[in-house]
Specification:
heterodimer; A: ABC transporter involved in vitamin B12 uptake, BtuC; two-stranded antiparallel sheet; 16 helices; globular; B: 268 residues; alpha/beta; Rossmann fold; 2 domains; six-stranded mixed sheet; 11 helices
Chain lengths: 355, 268
């Protein structure tokens, strides 16, 4: 059992996964995600009564988006209520470039990220002057403007009828099943997570966290506030744009109803419940927010078998419990699931001699 | 090159007012390379205002600030850091949620070159830069200021005295040619004060960094500074070596109340 960390070079001490154990755990997790999970998913679906594979794909997509919002809100301290719409920009961009302009998928997806980054940066310009709730309201404008464009720019977006997107194929290989998508999404999610983690331990990420913690002294240290605030909007929107692109190609139909204010708030809930300012926060929060409604459906369905008119009485029982769970979470774990995870880890590290 | 002006930092006829309140009324001072220059004065005399003007937090109504013969009066605040001017704050202005190490690394922000792409992928350039930076910080700053034990701690959890020291470390990481210290000993006990004075002298000697020191602890000011500048109501009332200031009538009247207690305060 190790009694401490003894790194002999600075390079070793600067690594993300610093111990052999951590590397083993991560290796095990990757092995499970790539090989184990696809095998157990079908049988899990049978147990839970919903497609676990589909859920995993949705979680992956939303994790990428949540990472984006976490970078902006959790690490740079700028709240955004426009990320639902930004995801829509990504979805429509990829969909339109793929369907109408005939771009290949591997080009239309990064293009979706770039276009969304541009749109996000435009709506991020007020961040030079506005902070906190004021910025939230300013970004909410993005939600309304983009939502309006998605509904009414019919020639481009197909209006309220939506836009049909074909299955992507690249280099002669078509993504036919949920499992194919799963591998694509998994790889992109891992890349997105590592990029975020790396960004935060180098110059740019540090400057962003500094802007969050105390922007005036960051400026004295030579951090160009406007540049980093805008850059945070750009990278954040890139993430959520890629998530939107993936969503478009996975869902196969895009309409403005997918990207409403509700989605923006859901994203915010994901990062807050998961833990603002923790890379793990985006992951935990997304898993929690996507799975909870599905898991809550199970007891409701069982109950409705016993008392057939329970739906008549408690039509919104699921939503009610959903809201309740979120409130309880915020009361008892205001720092998010990631903080709880760190306490648990610290406890087990020393167990059973925790003194 | 014409060298009529040898000062490293020169403030010329600085005026600053907030509405009707005059904070600085024609302050001029010159800091020579490598000296410890103390600014003292009663509360509200405008000491911190001078630093804030130098760092471009405040925009002076009138006057000029020259650093190494370059006019910095019109620069954007974040550009001043790149010129080699670093400062600490009266009320600690650290990044509370970051570790000590990250705080210090941020101080080196202007000396790093890697962008967000190489950072995000941790490519060769960013990786090399980070490791090199870590080595420099460990060997040149953490060892000097004796903060090895707390390098991975979150700053917000540290006691006040240590936070002050981390703030000094962060300013050092900027590799400044002039260091502006705003009350570095405020709220410290005797031992911490002595440590801090030792660090300031070490920095001044080893790196030939000029230091502008605002401090109320007269014992320290008189002990370590080369020259003392006394400010009252936004105007200079005296300037000179510590021995001279200790005997200056104006200073004793304005700052110390003219009583016998003044003499004990000045270290007699």
């Amino acid at each position: 059992m190790p009694t401490g960390l003894f790194h002999s070079t600075y390079q070793e001490d600067e690594k993300i996964f610093r111990t052999v154990w951590l590397k083993c755990w991560m290796g095990g997790l990757l092995l499970f995600l790539f090989i184990g999970f696809p095998f157990v998913a079908p049988s899990l679906s049978g147990v839970f009564g919903f497609s676990v594979q589909h859920m995993a794909n949705m979680i992956g997509i939303y994790i990428i988006g949540a990472h984006g919002l976490n970078l902006l809100t959790g690490f740079t301290g700028q709240i955004s209520l426009g990320h639902g719409a930004f995801m829509g920009v990504g979805a429509y961009t990829s969909g339109i470039l793929f369907m109408k302009a005939g771009w290949p998928f591997w080009l239309s997806l990064p293009a979706a990220g770039l276009v969304t980054a541009g749109v996000g940066m435009i709506f991020g310009v007020p961040s030079l002057r506005l902070r906190g709730l004021y910025l939230a309201i300013a970004t909410m404008a993005a939600q309304f403007i983009i939502g309006y464009a998605m509904r009414n720019w019919t020639s481009l977006t197909g209006g309220s009828g939506g836009l049909n997107v074909d299955r992507p194929s690249f280099f002669g290989f078509t993504l036919d099943t949920d499992l194919h998508y799963y591998y694509l999404i998994l790889i992109l999610t891992i890349v997105a997570t590592l990029f975020l983690k790396n960004l935060l331990r180098t110059r740019t990420g540090r400057a962003m966290v500094a802007v969050r913690d105390r922007y005036l002294s960051a400026e004295i240290m030579g951090v160009n506030l406007f540049k980093y605030r805008l850059l945070a909007f750009g990278i954040s929107s890139f993430y959520v744009g890629v998530a939107g692109g993936l969503f478009a190609h996975y869902n196969l139909v895009v309409s403005d109803e997918h990207f409403t204010m509700w989605l923006s708030i859901q994203y915010l809930a994901m990062v807050i419940i998961g833990g603002l300012g923790h890379v793990l926060g985006g992951i935990f929060g997304t898993i929690f927010m996507v799975l909870l409604p599905e898991v809550l459906r199970i007891p409701t369905e069982i109950l409705s078998n016993i008392y057939p008119n329970i739906f008549a009485i408690f039509g919104t029982l699921r939503e009610l419990v959903f809201g309740l769970v979120i409130i309880l979470f915020l009361i008892f774990e205001p720092d998010g699931l990631a903080a709880r995870w760190h306490t648990i880890r610290a406890y087990w590290k020393l167990w059973p001699f925790s003194y | 090159m014409e060298t009529a002006n040898m000062a490293q930092l020169e403030v010329q006829d600085l005026h600053l007012s907030f509405g009707g309140l005059t904070a600085l009324n024609g302050v001029s001072l010159a800091v020579d390379p490598g000296e410890i220059f103390a600014i003292i004065g009663p509360n509200g005399a405008g000491k911190t205002c001078i630093l804030n003007c130098i760092c471009r937090f405040y925009y002076p109504d009138k006057g000029k600030i020259l650093f190494e013969d370059r006019d910095v009066t019109q620069l954007a605040p974040h550009k001043v850091a790149g010129m080699g001017i670093a400062r600490t704050f009266q009320n600690i202005e650290l990044f509370q949620g970051m570790t000590v190490l990250d705080n210090i690394k941020l101080g080196a922000h202007v000396h790093l070159r890697s962008g967000f792409l190489s950072g995000g992928f941790y490519w060769g350039k960013a990786r090399k830069e980070e490791v090199k930076l870590r080595r420099e910080i460990e060997e040149r700053i953490i060892d000097l200021l004796e903060i090895q034990a707390i390098r991975k701690k979150i700053v917000g959890t540290l006691p006040y005295g240590l936070q002050k020291r981390v703030e000094l470390a962060r300013a050092l990481a900027m590799q400044p040619r002039i260091l502006l210290l705003d009350e570095p000993m405020a709220g410290m006990n005797l031992e911490e004060t002595e440590d801090m004075a030792r660090f300031i002298l070490d920095i001044n000697e080893e790196r030939r960094v000029a230091i502008v020191l605002i401090e109320h602890d007269m014992g320290v000011v008189m002990d370590i500074s080369d020259r003392v500048f006394v400010l009252d109501f936004g105007t200079k009332i005296a300037e000179g070596p510590p021995e001279e200031i200790q005997h200056n009538e104006h200073v004793i009247n304005a700052y110390l109340g003219g009583s016998d207690a003044a003499f004990s305060k000045l270290g007699f």
